[in-house]
């Protein structure tokens, strides 16, 4: 990621959170969901485009604070993708985890756009031993 961008270990605003999810193609969430959840993560990272001041990327981590860490909300606005922003966000979050819990169990649910990024950071598919499941 070059100097056009600045990374902070903070969540985006509620407005930016909703916009980042929607415009990056993740499911849209309600304002109430965002307001209730935005400060609930164990760690958050945001990337700001310095010239415009716009929030262009984010990632968050849910955790018990001991050993269990779940990466969520990885999203970069389309105009700013493929410039290393997602990599910088994931690197910052994983460095923070490693500093706090050297033997952490770190997992995520990988949508296709993120899979190569996650693989570069050491993630492998958990199946067939463990399959991600969600309630529908
Ligand atoms: C997944 C996502 C967060 C990745 O963000 P990103 O900022 O594009 O990620 P990066 O730029 O670090 O890496 C993406 C690619 O760009 C390449 N890249 C990085 N810097 C580059 C540069 N300066 N020039 C050209 N390519 C570059 C990387 O090598 C990588 O290539 P690969 O995917 O072919 O291996 C983003 O694609 C996204 O928001 N997708 C939609 C939402 C989504 O699906 N999120 C994941 C949910 S699990």
Reading off the top of the CATH hierarchy, the class is best stated as Alpha Beta
Estimate the strand proportion: 25-35%
Calculate Rg over CA atoms: 15 Å
Number of domain modules: 1
- Unreliable residue stretches: none
- Summarize the helix and strand pattern as letters: EHHEEEHEH
Shape: globular
Give the % helix: 25-40%
By DSSP, the count of extended strands is: 5
User: Can you tell me the CATH architecture?
Assistant: 3-Layer(aba) Sandwich
Question: Given the helix and strand composition, which structural class is it?
Answer: alpha+beta
Largest sheet: 5 strands, mixed
Count helical runs.
4
Ligands in the model, by name, code or SMILES, are: coenzyme A
Relevant CATH superfamily: Gcn5-related N-acetyltransferase (GNAT)
Notable features of this structure?
136 residues; alpha+beta; Aminopeptidase; binds coenzyme A
How would you describe what is shown here?
The structure is a single chain. With 136 residues, the chain is of the alpha+beta class. The protein has a single domain (5-120), classed as Aminopeptidase (3-Layer(aba) Sandwich). The chain contains 4 helices and 5 strands, in the order E-H-H-E-E-E-H-E-H. Strands 1-2-3-4-5 form a 5-stranded mixed β-sheet. A hairpin with a 4-residue loop joins strand 2 (43-49) and strand 3 (54-63). The longest helix has 16 residues, at 85-100. The chain is globular and about 45 Å long. The structure holds coenzyme A (COA). Coenzyme A is lined by residues 24-26, 74-76, 81-87, 110-111, 113-114, 116-117.
């Amino acid at each position: 990621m070059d100097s056009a961008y600045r990374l902070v270990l903070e969540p985006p605003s509620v407005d930016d959170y909703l916009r980042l999810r929607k415009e990056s193609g993740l499911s849209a969430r309600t304002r109430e969901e965002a307001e209730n959840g935005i400060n609930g993560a164990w760690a958050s990272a945001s990337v700001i485009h310095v010239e415009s001041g716009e929030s262009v990327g984010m990632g968050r981590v849910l955790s018990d604070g001991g050993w269990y860490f779940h990466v969520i909300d990885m999203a970069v606005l389309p105009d700013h993708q493929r410039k290393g922003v997602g990599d910088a966000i994931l690197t910052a979050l994983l460095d923070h985890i490693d500093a706090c819990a050297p033997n952490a169990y770190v997992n995520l649910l990988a949508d296709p756009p993120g899979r190569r990024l996650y693989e570069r950071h050491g993630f492998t598919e958990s199946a067939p031993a463990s399959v991600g499941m969600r309630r529908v």
